[in-house]
Automatic annotation (TrEMBL):
It comes from Alteraurantiacibacter lauratis. Keywords: Membrane, Transmembrane, Transmembrane helix. This is Flp family type IVb pilin. InterPro entries: Flp_Fap. The keyword Transmembrane helix applies.
Length: 57
């Protein structure tokens, strides 16, 4: 019985889980930001490409 009480009091595993959750949250935020930025960059490069094509015509 004391084994289970000691396991409930031990918080070392909880700290590792919290760090894992923080890392996952940062990864999700980075992916969302890069997806948004990627779309904007694609539009910018397409616009520049169109302008260059018009200038060469």
């Amino acid at each position: 019985m004391t084994f289970f009480k000691n396991m409930l009091r031990d918080e070392a595993g909880a700290t590792a889980i919290e760090y894992g959750l923080i890392a996952a949250l940062i990864a999700v935020a980075a992916i969302a930001a890069l997806n948004s930025l990627g779309g904007n960059l694609n539009n910018t490069f397409n616009s520049v490409s169109d302008e260059l094509e018009e200038a060469n015509a």
